[in-house]
Amino acid sequence: MYAIIATGGKQYKVENGMKLDVEKLEANVGDTVKFDVIMLSDESGVSAGNTVAGAYAEAEVLAQGKGKKIIVFKYKAKKNERKRQGHRQPFTTVQIKSIVK
User: Fold this and answer.
1) 25, 21, 11: which is closest to 95 by C-alpha?
2) b/e string for 40-76 if b means 16 or more Cβ within 10 A?
3) What's the structural domain count of the chain?
4) Dist CA 58 CA 67 (whole Å)
5) What does the alpha-carbon distance between residue 6 and residue 13 come to, in Å, rounded to a whole number?
6) Which domain holds residue 82?
7) Of 29, 38, 36, nearest to 92 (Cα)?
8) Distance between CA atoms of 71 and 53, rounded to whole angstroms?
9) Tens digit of pLDDT for each residue in 26-58?
10) Contacts of 53 (CB under 8 A, 6+ apart)
11) I need a labelling partner for 97 at 20 to 30 A (CA). Which of 9, 28, 37, 85 fits?
């Protein structure tokens, strides 16, 4: 059984026991969070839309972290304008505990 969930403006395919990094959530380590299910696939087939209304995926927050640093460099040619900036995207690591219909 797997489900498609939506969080942080993105969609993820998840299964029971799966670990994944999602956009930062305002939750503490050890908390349980619920994600809305967009599409569900099980032994009876695939269902989406109103047929999965009320379904959710339950997950446990394992860690909060930051991604690898990227460098943003902007400049304007022949004007001696340069700007160097770094960025580390925050994320939350979750483990899917169950998918509830």
Assistant:
1) 21
2) bbeeeeeeeeeebeebbbebbbeeeeeeeeeeeeeee
3) 1
4) 24
5) 9
6) 2-100
7) 29
8) 42
9) 999 999 999 999 999 988 889 888 878 889 999
10) none
11) 9
Sign of CA dihedral 36, 31, 99, 55: negative
pTM (2 decimals)?
Answer: 0.82
Angle at 53 between CA 47 and CA 55, to 5 degrees: 80
SS3 content of the chain, % helix, strand, coil (to 5): 5, 65, 30
Residue 38 CA to its chain's centroid (Å): 14
What six digits make up the tokens of 38?
């967009």
